């Protein structure tokens, strides 16, 4: 059952503090979540209680909460309150999985539900970070890392060859068995078992020729053009927690992003 504990170790925020007051409120709510006062699925106290505790107006609080909802840190449920967001299959599809079967351009404006890919496990090994992995994860070259590889298919057709890399020190106790037997997405595993929430990701996309391993995994000819997406998943404070390289066969699929600007 979700709980609504009072905020811990807080005093009213000074109007002369660093930055706009709503940003200070936002940072304080983030701190409460980062320190484990509120965990995924927990209910936050009512607006009046939080505003009173921090010494701010309801309007200032709502502006801070609005940003955290937009950033998928919090979720509002009408008539029930505000909760710390849980990673779910739907949120994963909306935020982090962007591969779709190619459709008619005339249907682009029509909302549709993305398909959850079938995931085939390929391998899970412990190794040492190379320079690229170390830079992405902000660790030292040679530090211990865990690497997992998967093949993702849509409608029975292999589409994505995924390599995931995490720092072993951040995910102590993560084993191949635990990884393979996770009941939901890997981001939900990070959150439920290790208390680490993926809030956003930074990606770089490029076209490359398929290497021999990717060609074998996706069933394409070596050297054919594919899309390569380098993603760094970030948690609070933009701390990197996962480096992922996704090699995508775009012969019948597109990489689709919906862009918006939060004001």
Automatic annotation (TrEMBL):
Query: Transcription among the record's keywords?
Result: yes
**What SUPFAM superfamilies does the record tag this protein with?**
Chorismate lyase-like (SSF64288), Winged helix' DNA-binding domain (SSF46785)
Instruction: Indicate the segments forming the HTH gntR-type domain, all copies.
Output: 19-87
What the entry lists under PROSITE patterns is as follows:
HTH_GNTR (PS50949)
Keyword Phosphoprotein annotated: no
One GO term (biological process): negative regulation of DNA-templated transcription
Per the UniProt entry, the signal peptide is none
Q: Mind telling me which InterPro entries this protein's record contains? A: Bact_HTH_transcr_reg, Chorismate_lyase_/UTRA_dom_sf, Tscrpt_reg_HTH_GntR, UTRA, WH-like_DNA-bd_sf, WH_DNA-bd_sf
The GO terms describing molecular function are: DNA binding; DNA-binding transcription factor activity
Entry keyword set: DNA-binding, Transcription, Transcription regulation
**UniProt protein name:** GntR family transcriptional regulator
Organism per entry:
Ramlibacter albus
